[in-house]
Amino acid sequence: MKRVFVNEKWCLGCHLCEYNCAFANSGLTDMVKALKNKEIHSNIHVEGNENINFAVSCRHCKDPICVKSCISGALSVKDGAVCIDKNKCVGCFTCILVCPYGAISDNGNHAVQKCELCLQNSCAEPACVKGCPNKAIVFEERE
Description:
Elements: E1 3-6, H1 16-24, H2 31-35, E2 45-48, E3 53-56, H3 65-69, E4 75-78, E5 81-84, H4 94-98, E6 105-106, E7 112-113, H5 127-130, E8 137-140
Antiparallel strand pairs: 1-8, 2-3, 4-5, 6-7
């Protein structure tokens, strides 16, 4: 299965992946209307400092502990991707606590969010990958 991978040597720390992700998941067709003067809640986030930057997103683990720990059954694996049923999430944030990569976050509405590889957006590749100007984020299959 293809997954998102980051080459931290190429990451500029520009945060464009966050904006492209937030826009792709906004449900709107105009980026300005979707993001201007709004708090951004993207499914990917950039960490780092002046020496190194990297984007953090879900690794879609083969045996995801977040899915096992979800008390409401909101997290499941579909075609190899860990997905969220937002209607089932009760906001206990147990999945946030157990994720070893810090890839799950609060969406600001007492529920969680995480990368779902833009599967619900019918994209050929995730928006963060398409929007990375330095090609630091790739969508590929690896062993």
